[in-house]
Amino acid sequence: MWFIFAFTSALLSATAAIFEKKALFKINALHFSFLLALANLLLSIPFFIYADFQSISLQTYAVIAFKSFLGSISFLLVMNGIKRLELSSALPLLTITPGLVAVFAWIVLGEKLGSVEILGILFLLIGTYMLQVGKPSNLLTPFYFGMKNKAYLYILGAVLIFTFTSILDKWLLSDYRVAPESYLPLQHLFMAGFFSVYIIFSKTTSRAVVDGFKISWKWILIVAILTIAYRYTHIWAIKTGAVALALSVKRTSVFFAAIIGGTIFKEKNIGYKALAIAVMIAGAIFVILK
User: Where would I find the H helices in the chain?
Assistant: First the structure.
């Protein structure tokens, strides 16, 4: 049963990424993120009705708020990256997060890296290199891709934040024992609040936000529904099976989004990118399963 939930979550996540790219053709990344955060909050109302929030301490609320703050920044960075880059080039870079988490845990927490994890990290590096090469004749491209297109820096910034938030997620769901049904709506509540603050400080006019909503409300609604669905099915995948196995299957969403989305948007070198992404996903699975 866990595999059905995990694979469904992967497909829904991939579909959401494709619609996000579609919406970002017409709307500013900050406006889209703000409107999506509000839509996610509205769709989370049923969770607020049935979830148990009394068992959550003030300290835990503070940690959830901090994690949501980082999550809002990383999401905005990813949206800026997706808007400026090909989907098949931007999304796969997020796959290196498990490798960075493993290295971070090794350096900071003193956790040992086993042979399987080292192999997984090596696969991640090889796949990332292949993805940035684009084709065999561009062997030196990965060493200056950030200078060639600064949009990659948005994705790399998000990856660094994901490295830290992945550890916070582990603490919240295991050490703090926050129920996923409570964690999901609280996260959407805090993120909606943070994006509201970003909108205010960006001096965006209400007219600009309303115009963005009129242009992309259909895409925003679709992405919000898909977001709630893939996050909730992912929660059930974790509850009914091993966390590592559920995460491994979830990683396949990057492959589906990059290849299907890349084909829809007529992006370049899809076949070669598919090979690179497959290598990266294999590396991520090695690290996660360990």
Answer: 2-24, 29-43, 45-50, 58-84, 87-90, 97-108, 115-133, 145-148, 151-170, 180-201, 206-240, 243-250, 252-264, 270-289
Q: What is the DSSP letter of 173?
A: I
Taking residue 45's Cβ as centre, other Cβ atoms within 10 Å add up to 10
Residues with Cβ within 8 Å of residue 74, at least 6 apart in sequence? 157, 158, 161, 162, 165
Q: How high is the pLDDT of residue 146?
A: 53
**CA–CA separation, 71 and 96 (whole Å):** 17
Nearest partner of 19 among 286, 233, 265, judged by Cα: 265
pTM: 0.85
CA dihedral 3, 230, 99, 104 (to 10 degrees): -120
Name the region of 281 (left: φ>0; alpha: ψ -120 to 50; beta: rest). alpha
Instruction: Read off the tokens for 240.
Output: 């009914």
Q: Which residues of 137-163 are buried (b: 16+ CB within 10 A; e: fewer)?
A: eeeeebeebeeeeebbebbebbbebbb
3-state secondary structure of 138: coil
Contacts of 222 (CB under 8 A, 6+ apart): 19
Residue 254 lies in a domain: no
Q: Is residue 195 part of a domain?
A: yes
- Tally the domains of the chain: 1
Query: Phi and psi for 176 in degrees, rounded to 5?
Result: -85, -15
Tokens at 199, concatenated = 């909108």
**Tokens at residue 71, please?**
């999550």
Q: Is residue 255 part of a domain?
A: no
Question: For the chain, which ranges sit under pLDDT 70?
Answer: 108-109, 111, 132-149, 173, 238-239, 241-248, 290
